[in-house]
Amino acid sequence: MGTPQAGGAPASGTDMLMQFLPLIIMFAIFWFLLIRPQQKRAKAHKQMLSELKRGDHVMTSSGLLGRILEIDDEQVLLECGEAKLRVSRGAIGGLLSGKGGNKDAAKEEKK
Protein backbone atom coordinates (compact mmCIF):
# COMPACT_ATOMS: atom_id res chain seq x y z
CA MET A 1 0.00 0.00 0.00
CA GLY A 2 2.86 2.41 0.68
CA THR A 3 4.85 1.88 -2.59
CA PRO A 4 4.06 4.26 -5.47
CA GLN A 5 3.43 2.75 -8.89
CA ALA A 6 5.84 3.46 -11.75
CA GLY A 7 3.13 5.06 -13.92
CA GLY A 8 2.19 7.58 -11.26
CA ALA A 9 5.65 9.15 -10.88
CA PRO A 10 6.22 12.44 -12.75
CA ALA A 11 8.67 12.25 -15.66
CA SER A 12 11.99 13.97 -15.08
CA GLY A 13 13.54 16.48 -17.50
CA THR A 14 16.15 14.04 -18.78
CA ASP A 15 13.49 11.44 -19.61
CA MET A 16 11.59 14.01 -21.71
CA LEU A 17 14.80 15.02 -23.50
CA MET A 18 15.62 11.40 -24.29
CA GLN A 19 12.16 10.95 -25.81
CA PHE A 20 12.56 13.97 -28.13
CA LEU A 21 16.24 13.42 -28.96
CA PRO A 22 15.56 11.16 -31.98
CA LEU A 23 13.14 13.75 -33.41
CA ILE A 24 15.68 16.54 -32.92
CA ILE A 25 18.39 14.48 -34.62
CA MET A 26 16.09 13.66 -37.56
CA PHE A 27 15.22 17.34 -38.01
CA ALA A 28 18.94 18.26 -37.99
CA ILE A 29 19.66 15.63 -40.65
CA PHE A 30 16.78 16.87 -42.83
CA TRP A 31 18.00 20.45 -42.40
CA PHE A 32 21.56 19.76 -43.54
CA LEU A 33 20.74 17.24 -46.28
CA LEU A 34 17.53 18.68 -47.80
CA ILE A 35 16.41 22.12 -46.70
CA ARG A 36 19.72 24.01 -46.57
CA PRO A 37 21.03 22.92 -50.03
CA GLN A 38 17.65 23.74 -51.60
CA GLN A 39 17.74 27.24 -50.10
CA LYS A 40 21.29 27.76 -51.37
CA ARG A 41 20.28 26.68 -54.91
CA ALA A 42 17.25 29.00 -54.86
CA LYS A 43 19.41 31.91 -53.69
CA ALA A 44 22.02 31.26 -56.42
CA HIS A 45 19.28 31.01 -59.09
CA LYS A 46 17.72 34.29 -57.94
CA GLN A 47 21.12 36.00 -58.07
CA MET A 48 21.80 34.60 -61.56
CA LEU A 49 18.43 35.94 -62.77
CA SER A 50 19.21 39.39 -61.40
CA GLU A 51 22.59 39.48 -63.18
CA LEU A 52 21.31 38.58 -66.68
CA LYS A 53 22.19 41.03 -69.45
CA ARG A 54 21.90 41.38 -73.22
CA GLY A 55 24.07 38.97 -75.17
CA ASP A 56 24.16 36.25 -72.50
CA HIS A 57 23.65 32.71 -73.72
CA VAL A 58 21.06 30.97 -71.57
CA MET A 59 19.10 27.74 -71.33
CA THR A 60 15.45 27.81 -70.32
CA SER A 61 14.01 25.35 -67.84
CA SER A 62 12.40 23.54 -70.78
CA GLY A 63 15.78 23.07 -72.50
CA LEU A 64 15.73 25.79 -75.16
CA LEU A 65 19.09 27.42 -75.85
CA GLY A 66 19.28 31.03 -76.91
CA ARG A 67 20.87 34.45 -76.67
CA ILE A 68 19.22 37.33 -74.84
CA LEU A 69 18.20 40.17 -77.17
CA GLU A 70 16.06 42.21 -74.77
CA ILE A 71 15.44 41.94 -71.07
CA ASP A 72 13.10 43.67 -68.63
CA ASP A 73 11.76 42.97 -65.14
CA GLU A 74 9.29 40.27 -66.18
CA GLN A 75 10.18 38.99 -69.67
CA VAL A 76 13.18 38.08 -71.80
CA LEU A 77 13.38 38.07 -75.60
CA LEU A 78 15.53 35.13 -76.73
CA GLU A 79 17.01 34.46 -80.13
CA CYS A 80 16.88 30.70 -80.74
CA GLY A 81 18.33 30.10 -84.18
CA GLU A 82 16.13 32.11 -86.53
CA ALA A 83 13.22 32.31 -84.10
CA LYS A 84 12.68 34.98 -81.47
CA LEU A 85 10.88 33.85 -78.35
CA ARG A 86 9.55 35.90 -75.45
CA VAL A 87 9.74 33.95 -72.20
CA SER A 88 9.24 34.75 -68.53
CA ARG A 89 12.41 35.73 -66.70
CA GLY A 90 11.77 32.96 -64.18
CA ALA A 91 11.80 30.39 -67.00
CA ILE A 92 15.54 30.88 -67.46
CA GLY A 93 17.12 27.76 -66.03
CA GLY A 94 20.79 28.61 -66.31
CA LEU A 95 23.52 30.68 -67.85
CA LEU A 96 25.71 28.83 -70.35
CA SER A 97 29.43 29.06 -69.73
CA GLY A 98 31.67 30.98 -72.08
CA LYS A 99 30.10 32.21 -75.27
CA GLY A 100 27.63 29.37 -74.96
CA GLY A 101 26.87 25.99 -76.30
CA ASN A 102 24.95 27.59 -79.16
CA LYS A 103 27.41 27.21 -82.08
CA ASP A 104 25.29 29.21 -84.54
CA ALA A 105 25.23 32.21 -82.21
CA ALA A 106 28.99 31.94 -81.70
CA LYS A 107 29.54 31.95 -85.48
CA GLU A 108 27.37 35.05 -85.87
CA GLU A 109 29.38 36.90 -83.21
CA LYS A 110 32.62 36.21 -85.10
CA LYS A 111 31.27 37.90 -88.25
UniProtKB/TrEMBL annotation:
GO BP annotation list: protein transport
Residue stretches spanning the membrane: 16-35
Membrane topology classification: Single-pass membrane protein
Disordered: region residues: 92-111
Pfam family, one: YajC
Record's GO cellular component terms: plasma membrane
Localization of this protein: Cell membrane
UniProt keywords, alphabetically: Cell membrane, Membrane, Protein transport, Translocation, Transmembrane, Transmembrane helix, Transport
Principal cellular location given in the protein's record: membrane
Sequence similarity: Belongs to the YajC family.
Name listed for the protein in its UniProt record: Sec translocon accessory complex subunit YajC
Organism in which the protein naturally occurs: Desulfovibrio legallii
Gene name of the record: yajC
